[in-house]
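tool_log.txt
---
The assistant was asked to compare two proteins side by side. It first ran the structure predictor on the initial sequence, then on the second. Raw inputs and outputs are pasted verbatim so the downstream comparison step can read them without reformatting.
(1)
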Amino acid sequence: MMPFSVRVSNFQNNTTLNICDAELLGKTIVQDELTMNITESYYGEKFIEREEAKLLLKNSSVINMVGKETVSLSIELGIGNENGIKMISDIPFLLVFKM
């Protein structure tokens, strides 16, 4: 199976990327009062490999990431910052806005 699930949308010259580890798709993660639904409508347009994920991460202006693989790939590429990572039930979540 492809390691990443993505949905890409373009609006006014900005590319928004919603990307998660493929195995998280369809799951709900809960911690205290926080519930996060990793829905197909938000993250599940298509499954992609690592190389395509790298290109999308580099070329998107707003990135919403969930999952260990996804977040570590973005940190490896220098996108996002470890300080920005939030943990929800041991699953990393990171939001990046490139200006």
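(2)
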Amino acid sequence: MPDTSFSTLIASVGSESPATGLQLPEDWMQGRAGYGGLAAALALKAMRSHVPPARKVRSLLVSFVGPVGAEEFSIRTRVLRAGKAVTHIEAKLVQLEAVRCVVLGSFGGDRESAIRIDPAPQPEMAVPADALELPYIEGLTPAFTRHFTYRWALGELPFSGRGGHEIGGWIQFRESTDCLTEEWLVALADAWPTPVLAMLTSPAPASTVTWEMGFVHLDRQACTENDWWGYRSTVDSAENGYVHERGAIWDPEGRLAVYSRQTATVFA
């Protein structure tokens, strides 16, 4: 069967609530679970109908309660509060009568402010043409990674037995689009492995438990063309099977677009 495009999956979530009859195809799985970045992106799309366009997504808090499998699921959204400037929305992905993922989204309009601090700059690293291309290997790399093109530029490769503190490089969707919105950025931001996998010498599964994202530089145009986006992730601590890490995505012009923090588990 042909792969399912990201744009097709995002378009499957309409304005009705709950969004029902949704499924994650095999090419968007990672092991027995669907790709978490896709689940969070679908939740964000479901939230959009509750807020006017002037209220931009400012943050997402994601808790992966359990794996979203291949069965049908629904997304149930609820406005927790709509204030003068900020709207808070909850989205739950429900499958087989069990909650599999909970997402809290905050949407707010721009404010007049005397405070401005420039965001973190993109790290120095080899340009995409000079960075290491990571191939998709059937049966070895997670199925969902076939939808992305990677160029590795910082840190050691997974299962190389060295490193483990940092990874980074460049990423873009394999499918073409001239309207890359925040839903696409959510998928890009979760597509890299945790840096600590580099400390291992053989494959082992890893899974995100919680994930926080902040969206910045939202004064850019609503649509961005598909191009190389910079990425870097560093580990703050890892012990007793849990990893705490932080990451960031920079747009094709080198401007910070997303920062994130994750708690992950590694089964090794």
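---
observation on (2): Residues 165 and 235 are 5 Å apart (CA to CA). The mean pLDDT is 93.
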